[in-house]
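Give me structure tokens for this 299-residue protein.
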Amino acid sequence: MTRKLPPLNALRAFEAAARCGNFTRAAQELFVTQGAVSRHIATLEDWLGVQLFERGRHGIRLTPAGERYFASMRVALDQIEHGTRQLQQQSPDEWLLRIKLPPTFAIRWLIPRLARFHALHPRIDVQITTSHKPTDFERDDIDVSIHSEPSPPVGPGYRLLFRETLLPVCAPALLRREPPLKAPADLAHQALLSSLNRPHDWQTWLAAAGAPGIDTRRGLQFENAAMAYQAAAEELGVMVGLLAFVRDDLASGRLVAPFDLRVPTEGGYFMAWRADRPVPQRVRDFESWIAAEAATSEA
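Here you go.
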């Protein structure tokens, strides 16, 4: 519903004149002419249909209606001034969200979605640090940590984003080459791509596929999984990936899954924050947003 407010410049002129008791001093305060203040007051009186000042040879005086209006006006302006000062005095850190997370999660999952968070919360500035090291909230200047855990953490201050599901992926062209890649056993003749930070993923998937004898130590190993995904797209071999990180590539056809078997694990990616103090609004906003994004992605 549209607010029915009188002209705001007229309100400012009235408040200054009523407080100063003089059109001249009000004009000096507002850096306008006395005639401008007089015209603003006349405009306000016409808009209200009420006389606010009695004008005489010795100056001006508020009418009873003007006294009542000035009292309510002063309360409203005091509240606006107080709110403005609070906002101006707020620390910049109130709007800075510091996130620490693994580089692959940042590159393949968070960054493609981050514009949606900024659109919802334009006042929150996001600072991203990538690391595989666990976060120590006592030592690290971090608000939110996102990390992979082999099993759900115990205690408050955690939220599950999604479980980890393993599946091999490769470039479509790799399926058209020799040697063939039609059964899990055929992986013995392919270059296996993996991340040094996830050394057991191939073993877990191959065991579930009934091909545990394949040597997973050969092939190409990368510092982080994001590099291994890129290598797979460049036709360097087969990567054992996480479903959450390859959904977009599978949908676009940039990568394909040569086998239907998808192996869920007990692990997952969790958001963590300090649970020993009140949770800042910026953290609550991010938690609500990323939980919704994760649910939509999994669905």
